[in-house]
Design goal:
- With about 350 residues, the protein is α/β, with parallel strands linked by helices.
- It has three domains: about 10-55, 434 Repressor (Amino-terminal Domain) (Orthogonal Bundle); about 70-165 and about 300-330, Rossmann fold; about 165-295, 3-Layer(aba) Sandwich (Rossmann fold), CATH 3.40.50.2300.
- It has eleven helices and twelve strands.
- InterPro entries: HTH_LacI (IPR000843), Lambda_DNA-bd_dom_sf (IPR010982), Peripla_BP/Lac1_sug-bd_dom (IPR001761), Peripla_BP_I (IPR028082).
């Protein structure tokens, strides 16, 4: 969606696209009335392609919006997102706007469903994690006619506004720090990345720098589900049994990195002399570990605050000149597990 104001789609738009009456469109979308399967399929396909979402606000309020901001994130169990929500709430609590959260579990089809339901209540704005969406979700966001802020990532083109970090740059900077410290036999552990686009981009940036320096990752492992701490321990043990000569382990997040750190400390491994470690996210909870894990801050609180400020400011003044594509700069924390040279 461009910066210009777009009118919301109506039943007439779907009627014209599908070639049936507005009354028939209404009956199909409310799942009522005697409508043939062929007509129903034609109407639903037209609505999906347009990104049309029915309005659940009835009667006199039918053309209105409510003071809700739809916040759509992939996970609540991941400790990254509560801090983002805190930033959003810090800004919106000083306004009439109220955040309402939906969770997608990193599944594009679930994101479609959550987005559809939230937009049907006509929120005043949307904050949604990531830049990668299905065609149907992107169509709904483009047709919503409200401010949309995609968060966490700026490696791509937004529907409207975006606030986050460049994950490719984060991966590149961590690789540069590791190589500068003298490490060269590197293993990688992370989430399965087809659906975790931000982890994939960090990995791409990381391996890009290694390749330019004539180095390849010597071992890698991926996980999905279960306790991240336990998985980190298990994967670290298995990787070092396979590849005992590794001198650095890079984890896609701090939680599996913490599991790896605890395992290595139990084994009496010299960290960072024999093996260095680094994660990502700078999770505050892990500051109580026996050693501070090297990591990189993802600017979570600032991302939440900035996204909410964009929504609130544009709703107050649609013609405002506020910056709508904001790339923040995370910094490496070397901790006790990455040598500095």
């Amino acid at each position: 969606m461009a910066s210009d104001t777009k009118r919301p789609l109506t039943l007439r738009d779907v009627s014209e696209a599908s070639g049936v009456s507005e009354m028939t469109v209404s009956r199909v979308l409310r799942n009522r009335g005697d409508v043939s399967e062929a007509t129903r399929a034609r109407v639903l396909e037209a609505a999906k392609e347009l990104g049309y979402v029915p309005n659940k606000i009835a009667g006199a309020l039918a053309s209105s919006r409510v003071n809700l901001v739809a916040v759509i994130i992939p996970s609540l169990s991941n400790m990254v997102f509560p801090e983002v929500l805190t930033g959003i709430n810090q800004v919106l609590e000083n306004t009439d706007l109220q955040p309402v959260v939906g969770v997608t579990d990193y599944l594009p089809e679930k994101e479609e469903k959550v987005l559809y339901e939230m937009l049907s209540w006509r929120p005043s704005g949307v904050i949604i994690a990531g830049l990668e969406h299905s065609d149907a979700s992107r169509a709904m966001l483009q047709a919503a006619g409200i401010p949309v802020v995609e968060i966490m990532d700026t490696d791509g083109k937004p529907v409207d506004a975006m606030v986050g970090i460049s994950h490719r740059r984060a991966g590149r900077e961590m690789a540069q720090a590791i190589l500068k410290a003298g490490y060269g036999r590197i293993g990688f552990m992370g989430t399965k990345m087809p659906l975790d686009h931000r982890a994939r981009k960090r990995f791409e940036g990381f391996t890009e720098v290694l390749a330019k320096n004539g180095i390849e990752i010597e071992d890698r492992d991926f996980y999905s589900g279960g306790s991240a701490l336990a998985k980190g321990r298990e994967m670290t043990q298995a990787m070092l049994e396979r590849s005992p000569d590794l001198d650095f382990l890079y984890y896609s997040n701090d939680m599996i990195g913490a599991g790896g750190l605890l395992y290595l400390l139990e084994q009496g491994v010299d960290i960072p002399g024999q093996i260095g470690l680094a994660g990502f996210n700078d999770v505050e909870l892990l500051q109580g570990l026996p050693r501070r894990l090297a990591t990189m801050d993802a600017c979570r609180l600032e991302i939440g605050r900035t996204a909410a400020e964009i929504i609130a400011t544009r709703l107050e003044d649609p013609e405002t000149g506020i910056e709508t594509q904001v790339t923040l700069a995370p910094k490496i924390s070397y901790g006790d597990t990455l040598k500095r040279r």
